[in-house]
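Researcher: Please translate sequence to structure tokens.
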Amino acid sequence: MHGIYINGLANISIQNTFPEPVLESKVAFESNHVRSIEPDFTKYINPVAIRRMSKIVRRAIATAKKSLEEAQIDMPEAIISGTGLGCIEDTEKFLVSMIRDNEQFLQPTHFIQSTHNTISSQIAILLKCHGYNSTYAHLGLSFDSALYDAFLQFKLNQIKTALVGAYDEMTPAYYELLKKAGNWNGCFAGEGSISIAISTEKKESTYCSIKDMALFSQVADGLKLENRIADFLKRNGFSATSIDAVVLSNSGNAENDAVINDLRHGIFANSLQITYKNISGEFYSSSAFGFWLAAIGLKQQSIPDHLLLNGKVQKPLRNILVHNHSMNKGHSLILLSSC
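Model: Translation complete:
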């Protein structure tokens, strides 16, 4: 099997992360609902075409083109996306028009563009890519599932290049619905569009390599989760103390963080711990932000102090583990290594 290299990254988020990441200065918020910082899309998309695109599609295409350009990939062999909500804004517009117009005189555009796989499809249409195209909508493991699909295809030598993305938006209406359900207790809502260009060829732009990855379902207790993590690290020649850092998905929500806190004070008690949802906000595919942060950290050999939960970065950074979970029903582990 060839190496799997991250050669291009692009991230439109609620921070100053596009077109270049500025992580040293943290953007502060007064609201618990924060929208992404919109770039000048005309640099990446024809201005005429922009008018027909929803915000999430604009963001996805801009980050996709930026990451592919950085990786010097003209045409990826696969486009794989993870999204928890898909094009929720277009879905809302279609439903509102149904109610407002009494189910008459409906415009099909919002319905056509409301499906989850619209994002991957629009990227493929723009690139004229006829290769493998798939979308995963697996709640908090949406991005992880998309990346795992690509990882397995690379491992089986089915593809040599891929564009993997995580795309989610949070509309005011959906935010209020989740607020009533108690989803924002202790955390705040964000959104993001993160594209990752991957290939089997190491280049000047390479950030790091994906050494290994695993997805597994619910575990009965913290001890068994720690065993799964320890086994994963062991098969790659590491222990929790021999990796340089671990990226954790704590958000401020007590229910979500209970799992993370067990790991922080258990298997990773003596490991450098990195957080990210304090700057990315919470959204279904936010684990991609943690992945992006780890890749940036390995290339730049630094992590901003406001993202460290304990200790200081000890250079060199060679191996970082990214852990994510979705309501403790599913977990993902991604091991990234410097090149």
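Researcher: Any highlights?
Model: The mean pLDDT is 93.
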